[in-house]
Amino acid sequence: ALCWILQLPSSMLAENGGALAGLVITRPRLTAGVGGSVLLECFFQSLVPGAWNVTKVDWIHRPENPTGREEMVFYYYSNYSVPVGRFQHRVQWCGDVARSDGSVRLQDVQADDSGTYTCEIRVFGQSSVFKNYTVLHV
């Protein structure tokens, strides 16, 4: 499966983390067919001078069913890409933190993959977590 970069992300969320403010940019909604694949895009940008030193990227899934539990999908930490749980063999790192990209590709999409996928960015020396989400319909 190939990973590619979105030219013009369509949604953004700004958070002010004290001295550090930034954007995490995702697509608000995506649709995928059962058995297909989908690129969950996540781009980040500092709003103050200087580049972010990103220490961790997390992807978390919250199912459409309100009684369902959140589950970790994937995390990137110290140059390691770690798919987790039921997503372990179906999610692939497509990002490059040096290029402000925390995107992942979900393959062999299943009906119960529908829900909200949150991309969380952690920055060295900051307690704030910067995040945004994509709602996936299968």
UniProtKB/TrEMBL annotation:
Gene3D superfamilies reported in the protein's UniProt record: Immunoglobulins
Pfam families recorded: V-set (PF07686)
Domain Ig-like: 9-136
Domain of life: Eukaryota
GO CC term, one of those recorded: plasma membrane
Signal peptide: none
Biological processes annotated in GO: cell-cell adhesion
Subcellular location: Membrane
SMART domains: IG (SM00409), IGv (SM00406)
SUPFAM superfamilies assigned: Immunoglobulin
Membrane topology qualifier: Single-pass type I membrane protein
UniProt keywords, alphabetically: Disulfide bond, Glycoprotein, Immunoglobulin domain, Membrane, Signal, Transmembrane, Transmembrane helix
Protein name as it appears in the record: Ig-like domain-containing protein
Originating species: Pelodiscus sinensis
Species classification: Eukaryota, Metazoa, Chordata, Craniata, Vertebrata
